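Every protein is a chain of amino acids, and every chain bends into a shape of its own. The protein below has been through that process, and both of its lines are reproduced in full.
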Amino acid sequence: MKTVKISAYYALLLAFIALICTALSTGVYFLTKDKIAEEINKQQRILLLQVVPQQYFDNVLSENCYVPTSQKLMANRIKNICIATKNQQKTAYAIETIAPDGYSGNIRLLLGMTPTGEILGVRVLEHQETPGLGDKIETRISNWILGFSHQKVTSDNLNEWAVKKDGGKFDQFTGATITPRAVVNQVKNAALSMLDELNQENQQ
């Protein structure tokens, strides 16, 4: 009987400790959730400004986004689009897309482009490429990704949109061609599909 009482005591003690821990965790969550959300929004704004400079818009870019439903855009792995407007005119787009053929898997990208196909900037959001080789797509490692800025995608220059090893104009990395090739191809494909979508909208 004494053993049963001791077991019940420890069970109640553990339940009480669990209740206290849950209450503390809940309290911390409610105290910090606004700050966490604010920090996430801040980082999102910083990234958007890196691919669509402030002079291109006077709206709240991060609040003017949508998930595409077009089959062509989805087929080209475009996951999200933010529309930049100035004086109520569409001036640029921030496009989240995925290069599926990186050396170690998917590479999440954010690119900014104008309605005429000029790339304003590209940044890598997430990747699993090899440190010291494929990770040169990050701005903290090298400035390679900055080479996309102010390049234009047109039906006449598609051959240029490749790494030099494939006859294009973009540098590859020493010992790592797959990663830059994946990024170049996806930037090109995303821009082309977006341009096609805009042309269809203009014809309607």
